[in-house]
Amino acid sequence: MPEHHGYRRPMAGPLDGIRIVDLSVALTGPLAAGMLVDQGADCIKVEQAPTGDVIRWLGSTVSGISSMFQVANRGKRSVVLDLRQADGMAILRDLIVDADVLVQNFRPGVAERLGVAYADIRSIRPDIVYADLTGFGPKGPYSHRRVYDTVIQAQSGLAASQTGINDDQPKFLKQLVCDKVTAYTACQAITAALFARERGAGGQHLELSMLDACIAFLFVDGADHEIILDGDHSGPQSVAANNTPLAFGDGFAAVAVPTDDEFHGLARAMSVDSSDPGLATIRDRSTNRDRTMAVHRAVREQATGLTVAEAEARMDANQVPFGIVRSVSEVPNDPQVVANEIFSEFDHPAAGRVRHHRPPTRFHGTPTELRQLAAPTLGQHSDEIVAQTGRADQIHELRAAGVIQ
Fold it and tell me: Cα dist. 266→134, 260, 271, 291, 300 in Å?
């Protein structure tokens, strides 16, 4: 077995025995299914020839295994099927007979044309949990459009919410945040539906759009004026809108000090006087904003004369909530990250040396470890999966006809 630090013998996990057919591509659907695999489910990833899932080829890629593809698809089995051919569809139908979950993210109308819409799948497997993921939704003026992450960052209000004072240009987060938010939402919805099925509700059709998921994500804390409609709208839409890093002589930190102890603790850490009675409580500080801001300005002035190490020690001693700004390359070696044992390394048979994170939740009652560390190469398990449908003697013929790859 390849070297794999921090893992013991694989254990089943809370979703052991759950079987998924993943027809989705890119990040949203595959990541949703991938998180279920991380928790013990078995997943067959159905891909299309000749290149398979598009994210195999985006970003850092070796032999069709990209960083994103590895993280979203580790532990799955890949079969390449031509669903336009009757034999390809017949194989898929046989796989669905034994499935608990189907995940797809086709544009509205495509699943119907292919014959894999909910009604089609339910006729094969009545208690299937069918996750139907779209960009804008199943109907409406935008439903027909092609969608990627930045499209939803724009349309959901997320990009505009990144602006601030003297900064009116929308900003895109430099990550596929809408894809990931939708994936996490879908994963939770699928497990909720499986739970309902266990309680006798049967299977069901889940509809989730990226737009809906990301509006729900943003509006929790980033749309104050659109929630409390009769409130004071003189401030920003988000309580986090004015957060800026605290600059030291050799680096930065994020600091948040909403409570009284934290505000005065930060002042002490930076040798700033905050004893003014008009600053004693959060209510006092909200009334005397000019004096409050004067303390924050003094803190920033003092901070520039300290190193990160000096400031870290002072803030820690005064119980100030803070986080040192790390580059992405520094994160794996952060002492707390090392203590959490979140990263491990292994040798991928196609991509070479790989570092990846463990499933973030530790299930102490139903421990889970990845049965297979590597994401599959394109069609790696085609023969195995086709044979499991009773077609072992047809594999050569099916490959020659382009039904499988």
Answer: 46, 10, 9, 15, 11
